[in-house]
């Protein structure tokens, strides 16, 4: 484990500089150090980091996890959350929503820094292999079934799931949950990849964490979509509202 290209995004310049020195001692290269969300977004793509140390207090226009998927669809950099004590509810919520590979409490010891990097690299390597296998399998199953169904691994079997049976899809960290009337199937994929494989004529992305089958929509409110024959409601994200309204027929 050496020679990683690292980007540091920390609101506090002094701890960030200390982190840079410790990373250099471990043989890693810090290609950029930023202290604002605007600078981070501007440099992220061009620096193409292997590893990002990110302060959850830095504000971005979109969630960090979504930004990384958008900019690095094939191989995303690992993320280590930089946390200053105390770990309050806002930081815990950020960690839950963005699923960093590891975290480091400032000021971190050298051994803690090494451990955080090792954990993050191991997780990214494992997830990349799983994502590749899931993508290949979804592509193959789509072609084999004329594009109107998937074969999804469920326990020891591969179950055929027709697009028409899918009620809605929900993101859950590094997985997506496909909800049908009979079962819930959890697969390792991104919402972006699954959205690409589902027919646009039948499915609408209404939120960064939800895709719904338009045939199963009972009603549309300003902030939510109701699902037919259930009490389930799905939130509507602000950036998806215009597309939803354009694709549904309102009288």
Automatic annotation (TrEMBL):
Protein name (record): Response regulator transcription factor
Record has Transmembrane as a keyword: no
Residues in Response regulatory domain copies: 5-121
GO molecular function terms noted in the UniProt entry: DNA binding; phosphorelay response regulator activity
SMART domains the UniProt entry points to: LytTR
4-aspartylphosphate: residues carrying this PTM: 55
Alphabetical keyword list: Phosphoprotein
HTH LytTR-type domain location: 150-250
SUPFAM superfamilies for this protein: CheY-like
């Amino acid at each position: 484990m050496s020679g990683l290209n690292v980007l540091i995004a920390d609101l506090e310049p002094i701890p960030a500089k200390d982190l840079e020195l410790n990373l250099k001692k471990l043989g890693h290269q810090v290609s950029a150090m930023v202290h604002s969300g605007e600078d981070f977004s501007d440099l992220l793509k061009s620096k193409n980091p292997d590893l990002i140390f990110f302060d959850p207090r830095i504000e971005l226009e979109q969630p960090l996890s979504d930004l990384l998927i958008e900019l690095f669809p094939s191989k995303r950099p690992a993320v280590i959350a930089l946390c200053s004590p105390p770990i309050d509810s806002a930081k815990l919520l950020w960690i839950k929503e963005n699923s960093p590979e590891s975290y480091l409490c400032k000021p971190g010891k050298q051994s803690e820094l090494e451990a955080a990097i090792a954990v993050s690299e191991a997780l990214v390597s494992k997830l990349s292999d799983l994502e590749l296998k899931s993508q290949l399998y979804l592509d193959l199953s789509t072609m084999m079934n004329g594009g109107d169904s998937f074969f999804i691994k469920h326990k020891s079997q591969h179950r055929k799931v027709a697009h028409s049976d899918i009620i809605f899809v929900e993101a859950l960290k590094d997985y997506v949950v496909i909800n049908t009337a009979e079962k819930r199937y959890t697969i390792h994929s991104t919402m972006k990849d699954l959205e690409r494989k589902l027919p646009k004529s039948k499915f609408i992305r209404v939120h960064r964490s939800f895709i719904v089958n338009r045939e199963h929509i009972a009603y549309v409110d300003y902030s939510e979509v109701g699902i037919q024959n259930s009490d389930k409601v799905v939130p509507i994200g602000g950036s998806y509202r215009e597309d939803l309204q354009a694709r549904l027929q309102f009288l």
